[in-house]
Amino acid sequence: MSLTRPPAEFSALIAELRNFMDTVVIPSEDLKTAHDGDAINKQASELRVEALKRGLRAPRRAVSDGGLGLSWEECCFFLEEAGRSFLGPTTLQCAAPGQPDIAALEKLASPWQRERYLEPLARGDIRSCFAMTEPAPGAGSDPRMLKTTATRTDSGWVINGDKWFISGAVRADFAIVVARSDAGVSWFLVDKSNPGFRVVRDIPTMEPFDAGGHGEIRLENCKVGPQALVGEEGKGLEHAQLRLEGARLFHCMRWIGLSSRAMSVAQDYAAGRDSFGTRLSEHQMVQSMVADAHISLYAARLMTLDVARKLDRGESIRHESSMAKVFVSEAVNKVADSAVQIAGAPGISEDLPLSMILRMLRPFRIYDGASEVHRAAIARRAFSKRLSA
Ligand SMILES: Cc1cc2nc3c(=O)[nH]c(=O)nc-3n(C[C@H](O)[C@H](O)[C@H](O)COP(=O)(O)OP(=O)(O)OC[C@H]3O[C@@H](n4cnc5c(N)ncnc54)[C@H](O)[C@@H]3O)c2cc1C
């Protein structure tokens, strides 16, 4: 167990969070404003004032930096609760892409970068995005296909390239741009106000809401100073792996919470609706979907917890985080799909939050590594390292 505080104190914190989610955050949800990033951000900022009064702060940030300083294991409980509402993670300062960007910059940022980017980002004064994926023929699943270049000049670097599906880009104040320099793949901090940086469009997706959109970006003769380089030149792929492993785990935690809520809504529906002379909840095929959802989420929680504990112990999680990501992303999608099925026609409407939850969860089987890419990597390691299943 990696608890940062006595169990009773931690239980009280989670009980407070659950109460806040049930009595304040979930009742504030308005599925109509869920499509409007500006409205979500405004609402989340207002809710954050109340959260802070209750001692509910950025879970992973150090206490000395104004956070709760929770371990990865403790975050499993915190983020599952926060994840039950689409407003929760933004309100509670644990939404992507900000949270993984903060975690990465805490490890890699220079003192100048800390002051200029990390501190205001962690306070919620500015927003970030992480720009790695490129349109064909650039990098998607295969990062070795990266085409964006960073060329060294007398006064810093000039970056050229195209990025897309960059979460948060539309409302971000700066981007962490992944580009190829002489020494290999490297990270650079680029202000949105840089004349060489342009968000070409917000790509419409099936996701019902995203506080910052999914931007397509053009970097054209984008000049940055020498201080824009993050960490060591040429180590960008290692940095990305570091960022991604934590980001992936946080997504598992949040989406377990959201799919669990979907099944609760479906169970309530089944308990109150009759068909063929009995309650839906009495039909064995409905019971089977409910039972399978409970079994899947139980396994998903345990896998996520195990990876979190390994991270707390400083162990490598490369193999386990791949396995957990595939399992959890597929499990939460199946649970949300069953929830829609159980609720019948209202399930696909926006009278209930179910169809929205399903649309939020579907892309998780693609981002942070598509299921097929993880399966290929798991099998490769199994053969090359002769791992037992
Ligand atoms: C909602 C959302 C948010 C995103 N946010 C960001 C972001 O903030 N920043 C960012 O940089 N990127 C982001 N992305 C992009 C994401 O990282 C990529 O979509 C992902 O890496 C896959 O790349 P691709 O879409 O180019 O798919 P491709 O690489 O073209 O692959 C397409 C499909 O082919 C299959 N496939 C690929 N390789 C293999 C293989 N080796 N074996 C078997 N099958 C394979 C998989 O089914 C895969 O889904 C986001 C994507 C989505 C959907």
From TrEMBL:
GO molecular function, one term: oxidoreductase activity
Acyl-CoA dehydrogenase/oxidase N-terminal domain segment(s): 10-125
Domain of life: Bacteria
EC number: 1.-.-.-
Swiss-Prot/TrEMBL cofactor(s): FAD
Domain Acyl-CoA oxidase/dehydrogenase middle: 129-222
Acyl-CoA dehydrogenase/oxidase C-terminal domain sequence ranges: 234-382
Pfam families: Acyl-CoA_dh_1, Acyl-CoA_dh_M, Acyl-CoA_dh_N
UniProt keywords, alphabetically: FAD, Flavoprotein, Oxidoreductase
EC top class, as a word: oxidoreductase
Subunit (UniProt): Homodimer.
Family as reported in the entry's similarity comment: Belongs to the acyl-CoA dehydrogenase family.
Descriptive protein name: Acyl-CoA dehydrogenase family protein
Upper lineage: Bacteria, Pseudomonadati, Pseudomonadota, Betaproteobacteria, Burkholderiales
